[in-house]
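Hi, does anyone understand the following?
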Amino acid sequence: MYRDQILAELEALPNEYLPFFLQLMRAFRESVTLKPAADSFRQGWREAQRGETSSVETLWKDDNKIMTGRSEFYREFDEGTR
């Protein structure tokens, strides 16, 4: 169902937009795909060594903003697909 809708949207795009769309799709996939645990740990360790850390309070506050935004997105998405 979703695949067919995505392919239909892709077919409707003018060819000059395809390179940008490809970049967008790759960036999206990379942002939602989990890294292997070892890679994630190494990145986190490097960030911690550089002092790139945040307090738990900041993380929770930011996480709540993200989750609220996601909830609104999915609610709007669900309403648009009915």
About this structure: The chain has two domains: 1-35, 52-82. Residues 52-82 form one domain. The two ends are 13 Å apart (CA to CA).
